[in-house]
Amino acid sequence: MNKIDMQSFGLSQRFITEATLYTGFYIGRVILQYKELYKVVTESGEVTAEVSGKFRFAVKALSDYPAVGDFVMLDRNCDAGGNAIIHHVLTRKSAFIRKAAGTANNEQIVASNIDMVFICMSLNNDFNLRRIERYLGIAWDSGAIPVIVLTKADLCENLAEKMAELEAVACGADVLITSSSSEDGYLPVKNYIDRSKTMAFIGSSGVGKSTLINRLMGENVLATKKIRNDDKGRHTTTTRQLMLLPGGGVVIDTPGMRELGIENADLAKTFADIDELSQKCKFHDCTHTSEPHCAVQEAIREGLLPADRLANYIKLQKETKYEGLSSKQIETEKFTTMFKEVGGMKNARKFIKEKTKNRHGF
After folding, report:
1. What CATH architecture does domain 271-324 belong to?
2. pLDDT for res 341
3. In this predicted structure, what is the pLDDT of residue 231?
4. What pLDDT, on the 0 to 100 scale, is given for residue 232?
5. Given 3.10.20.70, 3.20.20.70, 2.40.50.140, 2.40.50.100, which CATH number is that of 6-91?
6. How far apart are CA 203 and CA 139, in angstroms?
7. What's the pTM?
8. By CB count within 10 A, which of 212, 255, 261, 361 is most buried?
9. Nearest to 123 by CA among 83, 192, 197, 180
């Protein structure tokens, strides 16, 4: 039997090196997720897998469980003898994370180990700048590169106007325009596909994610449905799924998410214009609400910044743990979180100093 080239599924030296820590196990990548079962691709083929009892006992959060895109260590690479058992999830290089519905302070991994996030939005009544800002905040925080994909351009009568509005909020993210009415309408997305990368498609139901992926796959592998007359999408994709493109590259399709809860977000990149303006405020901890000599409020009065953009910025701050913090304080908070296992910011500096001392021998 021919072995599967795992590098075509995104396996890099980074994961190969980490996998050597777990002798006696096989590496695979999660390509489909059911309720408690996973479909995993290995060099010997696809297997159905479940987590071990020890793994289940050790996890502390929903986000610790395997997710589509994860590289995992299994006890076997074939279906002989029942389901394969997942013993370890290799360290994620990136993850698109949403706040799990109905839970407090719990994260759900939408897609992991991704290089690029295609944020899809149709050019009809689904078009929503505030939702784009929400998606961008999570995308920038994920560690992947966000790209905004506008679909159904053939149904839009005021494209130039919407592009001008979007330009004010894109803040460094590329914007692609696609159409499903022509055979080459998906080419702007195809030109971004890299055979060595993993791309995730994110967006509301019915905006055309599955249609784009079908075009990239060269066949109708995913069911598609149009947005209803009230512009609310029908849920077509119900599970997350990873697929290998014929020309190389990996794509992950995700269920539609009209409402996207935020646990963490990179607001400094998403609202780079507000962050830059805040440097000119009189008070370094300005909340841009009622303080005097606020450069952000001044920009609103002069018509340089939409008031609803600031309102959304403040709203997203409240949804994350960074409410009331300046950009510098947010970076400090992130640094503290990174080193929470060694006692936070203060002990982190001590930890780094000792590591440097040991490395140089003085």
Report:
1. Orthogonal Bundle (1.10)
2. 44
3. 41
4. 42
5. 2.40.50.140
6. 12
7. 0.78
8. 212
9. 180
